[in-house]
Specification:
By secondary structure, the chain is mainly alpha-helical. Helix content is 77%, strand content 0%. The N and C termini lie far apart (41 Å).
Length: 105
C-alpha cells in the first residue's frame, strides 16, 4: 500500500514539475546567476524530489510498457516519464529552473 502511494506521489510530482512553462528570455538571463538561497533550496528540496520523480516515472513506464508498445508511443512515454524529470534533476545548474537542454533549444 505504501509503495503505490509513493509511486503515485512521485508521478504527480513529476507531472507537475514537467509541465511548467518555459521562462522568458529575461528570466533565463537572470537565472544564469541564481541566488545562494535558490541553490540551497534546489539542493535540499528540488533535486531529491526530482530524483524520486525519476524513479517513480521509471516504475510507471515499466509497468505500462506492454500497453505503450501496443499503442506505438514508447518514445513519448519515456520522454515524459523518465527523461524530463531526469534532465531536471541531473542536467540543470544548481538553482536554475531550466535544464541545459531547454536552454539549447
Amino acid at each position: 500500500m505504501k509503495a503505490s502511494k509513493s509511486v503515485a506521489t512521485a508521478l504527480v510530482l513529476g507531472v507537475l514539475l514537467g509541465s511548467t512553462p518555459l521562462l522568458s528570455q529575461a528570466q533565463q538571463r537572470l537565472e544564469a546567476q541564481p541566488s545562494a538561497g535558490a541553490m540551497v533550496a534546489d539542493a535540499l528540496i528540488a533535486r531529491p524530489l526530482l530524483a524520486v520523480a525519476t524513479l517513480g516515472g521509471t516504475a510507471v513506464f515499466l509497468a505500462s510498457l506492454p500497453f505503450t508498445a501496443l499503442g506505438g508511443n514508447v518514445g513519448p512515454a519515456a520522454e515524459a516519464l523518465i527523461k524530463t524529470p531526469a534532465e531536471a534533476a541531473f542536467r540543470r545548474c544548481l538553482g536554475c529552473t531550466v535544464s541545459r537542454r531547454a536552454n539549447e533549444l
